[in-house]
């Protein structure tokens, strides 16, 4: 965290007026940080042009996922046509995310429909 | 040697055939020139005298002769340019004709009003040093000057108001004319819109600002009414009550002029807005129609390969078409007659009945959730897991949506985090007869104003346990 602050200060010094640089902040094991700190940390990072990029196991709590907002669950999708037999895990097409209703409507994603559920084959 | 008319006779002839002067003034206004070409005037005169008898023709020709006009002092100056001689009519002569024909009236411009205002300020300043003595010719002249200025200003504004009030008729006739030739309509509307905008911006609005008692001028200068008041006060202080009363009457007349102009302003503003919106819509429709039309024309050739319109470019260019297919439409309820269909319905009903019977009481008190300590969260998760283990599932294409519906019915202060908890728990559940398969298709669900975009998870019964 201290390193982070230091990097911000140095960065602001060399930054040109009016320009902005966005850096990914890579953090392994996000669950190591206490959940209470995220209310402060996340807005702070965004304000200083950092984007959090972090890995976690399933031990990460739903509250944390909810706070971060974006979730890439790697390892749950498998393909039947893998190019190598040992590598069936695939992942593409972006993250699952929390957003507001308007932007969800604006995206190309369809609203979950009741009728599909009722007539699903059993 | 031609006979010369006196000023009054020349003016009489001019007024006998006012059309000639009207046309000249129109031409001058059109070219935005204060002078008129001698030959243009001659052409106009000739057009008008054609039906008359010879004596009258001669009379008119000699009256409109340049020499006569100059000597009668109707034309004040002659300007020799490359393309002939140009006549400068006396401003007072033009004013008479403008008075006779309201449509010729030139709308007051911002510049004109400003110069009037400046001369009023000047008079106000001169009053500071005036003696206010009846026998001082300077003072008498100044007072005369002020009243004359105010009188001119008032008549100028009044004429303008009349001209502006006719704008409604003008707009009406413009619209009527436009509707008669539909193919030229868009063009016509464009020019009409531009003209009206010009009138509105350059003439109506400045006049309105000029007459607005609340307006503040740049540089801290006083507006018309403040100036009038200060002039009036100066007379009052020096016991010149009759002059002060006269100025007060002007003041009232000016205030009266404000309302009709405001009315016109509203009309024109409304018209402009309406026309603008109409034009935008019309243009949008027309443009898209033409695009689609060319696409369609390509499909009408004998080449059978082009049976469908290639709309990819069109869709990309118009935001409207993008994602149109994905909009939710009311789905018709499909009734089937197959056995599988009825079984499906009965199974669904049974499932819902058991749900209603089993968990209808709430397990969380609201304050247990508000306190967000991790212990409480854990407790909440435990209860959730317990509830999950009691749930009956069946194969579905979208298990998250099913859970979402059930949880929102069952759980108080249900949040997306609860849904996540449930999903993560289910994905690690091993001792049941279902497979949870993540697909790469997205859907979204909403709670109030928040949305969750997720990959649909299929729930499938594992083959070995599928005995049905």
Write the layout of secondary structure elements.
The complex is a heterodimer of chains A (122) and B (468).
Chain A: H1 2-14, E1 23-27, H2 38-47, E2 50-54, H3 62-68, E3 70-71, E4 96-100, H4 101-106, E5 110-111, H5 114-118
Parallel strand pairs in A: 1-2
Antiparallel strand pairs in A: 3-4
Chain B: H1 7-16, H2 18-30, E1 36-37, H3 38-49, H4 54-63, H5 66-71, E2 75-81, E3 84-89, H6 91-100, H7 110-128, H8 137-165, H9 167-180, H10 185-211, H11 224-237, H12 241-299, H13 312-317, H14 339-358, H15 366-370, H16 374-390, H17 399-410, H18 416-427, E4 434-447, E5 450-461
Antiparallel strand pairs in B: 1-3, 2-3, 4-5
Helix pairs in contact in B: 2-3, 7-8, 7-11, 8-12, 9-10, 10-12, 11-12, 16-18, 17-18
Could you please describe the fold and organization of this structure?
The complex is a heterodimer of chains A (122) and B (468). Chain A has 5 helices and 5 strands. By secondary structure, chain A is α+β, with helices and mostly antiparallel strands. In chain A, the strands form 2 sheets. In chain A, strands 1-2 form a two-stranded parallel ribbon. Chain A has a two-stranded antiparallel ribbon with strand order 3-4. With 468 residues, chain B is mainly alpha-helical. Chain B folds into 3 domains: 7-103, Arc Repressor Mutant, subunit A; 107-289; 361-465, no CATH class. Chain B contains 18 helices and 5 strands. Chain B has helices spanning 7-16, 18-30, 38-49, 54-63, 66-71, 91-100, 110-128, 137-165, 167-180, 185-211, 224-237, 241-299, 312-317, 339-358, 366-370, 374-390, 399-410, 416-427, and strands at 36-37, 75-81, 84-89, 434-447, 450-461. In chain B, the strands form 2 sheets. In chain B, strands 1-3-2 form a 3-stranded antiparallel β-sheet. In chain B, strand 2 (75-81) and strand 3 form a beta hairpin. In chain B, helix 17 (399-410) crosses helix 18. The longest helix of chain B is centred in the middle third of the chain and has 59 residues, at 241-299. Chain B is elongated and about 125 Å long. Mean pLDDT of chain B is 79; it is low at 361-371. At the A-B interface, helix 3, strand 4, helix 4, strand 5 and helix 5 of A face helix 14, helix 17, helix 18, strand 4 and strand 5 of B.
């Amino acid at each position: 965290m201290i390193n982070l602050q230091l990097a911000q200060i140095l960065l602001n010094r060399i930054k040109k007026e009016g320009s902005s640089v966005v850096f990914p902040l890579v953090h392994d094991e996000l669950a190591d940080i206490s959940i209470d700190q995220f209310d402060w940390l996340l807005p702070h990072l965004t304000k200083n042009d950092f984007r959090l990029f972090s890995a976690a196991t399933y031990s990460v709590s739903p509250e944390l996922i909810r706070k971060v907002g974006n979730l890439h669950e790697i390892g749950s999708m498998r393909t039947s046509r893998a190019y190598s037999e040992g590598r069936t895990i695939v992942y593409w097409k972006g993250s699952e995310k929390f957003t507001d209703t308007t932007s969800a409507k604006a995206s190309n994603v369809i609203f979950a429909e009741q009728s599909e559920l009722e007539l699903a084959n059993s | 040697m031609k006979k010369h008319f006196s000023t009054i006779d020349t003016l009489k002839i001019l007024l006998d055939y006012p059309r000639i002067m009207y046309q000249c003034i129109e031409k001058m206004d059109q070219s935005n020139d204060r002078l008129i070409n001698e030959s243009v005037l001659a052409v106009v005169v000739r057009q008008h005298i054609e039906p008359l008898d010879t004596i009258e023709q001669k009379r008119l020709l000699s009256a409109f002769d340049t020499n006569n006009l100059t000597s009668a002092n109707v034309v004040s100056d002659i300007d020799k340019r490359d393309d002939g001689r140009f006549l400068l009519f006396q401003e007072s002569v033009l004013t008479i004709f403008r008075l006779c024909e309201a449509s010729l009236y030139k709308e007051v411009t911002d510049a004109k009003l400003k110069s009037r205002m400046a001369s009023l300020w000047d008079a106000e300043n001169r009053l500071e040093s005036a003696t206010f003595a009846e026998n001082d010719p300077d003072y008498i002249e100044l007072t005369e000057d002020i009243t004359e200025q105010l009188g001119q200003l008032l008549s100028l504004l009044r004429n303008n108001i009349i001209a502006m009030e006719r704008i409604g008729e003008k707009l009406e006739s413009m619209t009527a004319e436009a509707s008669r030739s539909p193919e030229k309509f868009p063009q016509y509307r464009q020019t009409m819109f531009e003209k009206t905008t010009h009138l509105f911006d350059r003439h109506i609005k400045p006049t309105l600002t000029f007459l607005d008692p609340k307006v503040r001028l740049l540089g801290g200068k006083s507006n018309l009414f403040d100036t009038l008041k200060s002039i009036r006060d100066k007379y009052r202080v020096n016991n010149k009550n009759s002059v002060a009363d006269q100025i007060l009457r002007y003041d009232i007349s000016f205030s009266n002029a404000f309302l009709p102009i405001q009315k016109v302003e509203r009309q024109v503003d409304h018209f402009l807005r309406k026309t603008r919106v109409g034009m935008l819509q019309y243009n949008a429709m027309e443009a898209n129609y033409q695009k689609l039309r060319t696409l369609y024309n390509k499909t009408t050739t004998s080449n059978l390969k082009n049976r469908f319109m290639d709309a990819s470019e069109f869709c990309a260019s118009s935001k409207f078409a993008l994602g149109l297919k994905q909009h939710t439409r009311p789905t018709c309820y499909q009734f089937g007659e197959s056995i599988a269909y009825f079984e499906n319905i009965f199974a669904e009903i049974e499932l819902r009945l058991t749900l209603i019977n089993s968990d209808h009481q709430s397990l969380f008190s609201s304050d247990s959730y508000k306190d967000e300590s991790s212990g409480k969260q854990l407790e909440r998760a435990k209860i959730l897991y317990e509830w999950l283990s009691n749930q009956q599932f069946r194969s579905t294409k979208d298990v998250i949506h099913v859970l979402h519906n059930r949880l929102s019915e069952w759980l108080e202060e249900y949040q997306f985090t609860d849904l996540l908890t449930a999903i993560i728990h289910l994905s690690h559940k091993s001792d049941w007869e279902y497979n949870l398969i993540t697909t790469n298709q997205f859907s979204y669900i909403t709670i109030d104003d928040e949305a969750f975009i997720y990959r649909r998870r299929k729930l499938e019964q594992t083959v070995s346990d599928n005995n049905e």
